[in-house]
Amino acid sequence: MKKLTSLLAVILFAANSGFAGEPSLKFMISFPKEQSTQALDGRMLLLLSTNDEKEPRFQIVDGPETQLAFGIDVDGLQPGEKALFDAAVFGYPLRSLAELKPGEYWVQGLLHIYETFHRADGHTVKLPMDRGEGQHWNRAPGNLYSTPQKVRIDPRENTPIRITLDQKIPPIAPPKDTKYIKHIKMKSEMLSKFWGRPMYLGAVVLLPEGFDAHREARYPLVINHGHFPYTFGGFRTTPPDPDLEPDYSKRFNIHGYNRIAQEHAYQFYKEWTGPDFPRMVIIKIQHANPYYDDSYAVNSENLGPYGDAITYELLPFIEKKFRCLGESWARFLYGGSTGGWEALAVQVLYPDDYNGCFAACPDPIDFRAYTIVNIYQHKNAYYLDSAFKRTPRPGHRNYLGEVTSTLQEMNYRELVLGTHSRSGQQWDIWEAVYSPVGDDGYPKRIWDKKTGEIDHNVAAYWRENYDLGYILRRDWKTLGPRLKGKIHIYCGDMDNYYLNNAVYLVEDFLKNTGNPFYDGEVDYGDRAEHCWNGDHTRPNATSRLRYHQMYVDKILKRMELSAPSGADLTSWRY
Fold first, then answer.
1. Which segments in the chain show pLDDT lower than 50?
2. SS3 for 68-80, per residue?
3. What does pTM read for this prediction?
4. What CATH number was assigned to the domain covering residues 23-168?
């Protein structure tokens, strides 16, 4: 027995010491008291790259050019305490450090800091509050990170590689107001009550030419939904910078695309201030939150009553401050991608508060085509249902159909960046908005993030509350009369994320509506990729730079057709 005990001790020592033949590579990441004297919660990330063109934290993407990331949750990590990364830690795109090949890597650590929220629903959760950057973990002010170091790595090496988070991302300077662009912020009582702390809504306001001179004018309000805006992009009061170094757009295969963007921004300014352009107020809403760079502009069990807060708190505040007409017939919605879904969702869920939506390349508007997953019928999101095959579902393509990432890969990247739907990325925010709250206070998963197995009980909740195609079909008897003439949808038929699939399903219903007929528009761009907005006269690379001008004529016609008797259709037409 003594010999057997001794042999067991030797085996255990060998296993723990790396002598058992298993990879033993380890990283230890810590932060000093100079960065924080308090214990911190968050997501600790280990980032590795073979490319030194930029820091590893800016190279974790869905496409084939991605570098490596590994992540763990830390709770109450003390200054000087080590966060351990070994072969058991989940990674992307390599699943484990054990798969790492020997070689030289640029190594970086980053701590995405979480805040504790005591919500009104009784749940306490730890989440990364937005700090003015629009929920980007790699540039969120206050996050700690290390200076990248070039390290020779051998997965068989036993000596841990130590990383010290010696840098802190600085605050972001607030944008400056100009003659035409104003930035406003207001405390939301609804959201503050839900989150148990002060919460704010903001907006970037583009004022019409002559706003100060025409004090008698009252203006229509146009809401441009989309991702978090630092300021009003695509509006430039000066000609393009002649010294601007041309860049290259890989997406559009265009050299000097940055200059093209400046040219279109300057052209918009000239049109906006020209004599024939209708005088309106356009706003971009700032509603970044602990889960994403915007809230999807609807009420949610996990995010709170953002739909009500925007419609009933923020918009009246803006309309009063900037002399808007303040009536539903003079409110319009437009946007692309996330903003496209928001424009349609807000119009459908608040049918009497807005007079029309223009939804371009919207996120999935029918969950029978949640990109290419039918969440009600399919069993697995990552692979085709099959007894013998394991065919992965694609996640991103180009106009030729060439696939650059799968649904599994995209979701694995998110899982590395954050558990409990906390990655701040696309699939997680859909889950956070649409799902009911789980027992732990975080969103219930629509599918297992590792296996892809779909939870059809969660899918049923999504259908009843956020599947816009289903809601339209279910409630058309009451919704139809209130939405007549208000729905306009545009999508490229080669959308990179397969978003056109859901548009087809909604169109099939809309074009067969009766009593009343929907009397709107659904249009497709031939071979057009993501962000197509209905412009058949320009390539997608430039039409996407003209969202603000695209729908003006349609809005004017809608107001002239639907404005109530005695409505002000003239004071703002100077």
1. 1-20
2. EEEEEEEEEECCC
3. 0.94
4. 2.60.40
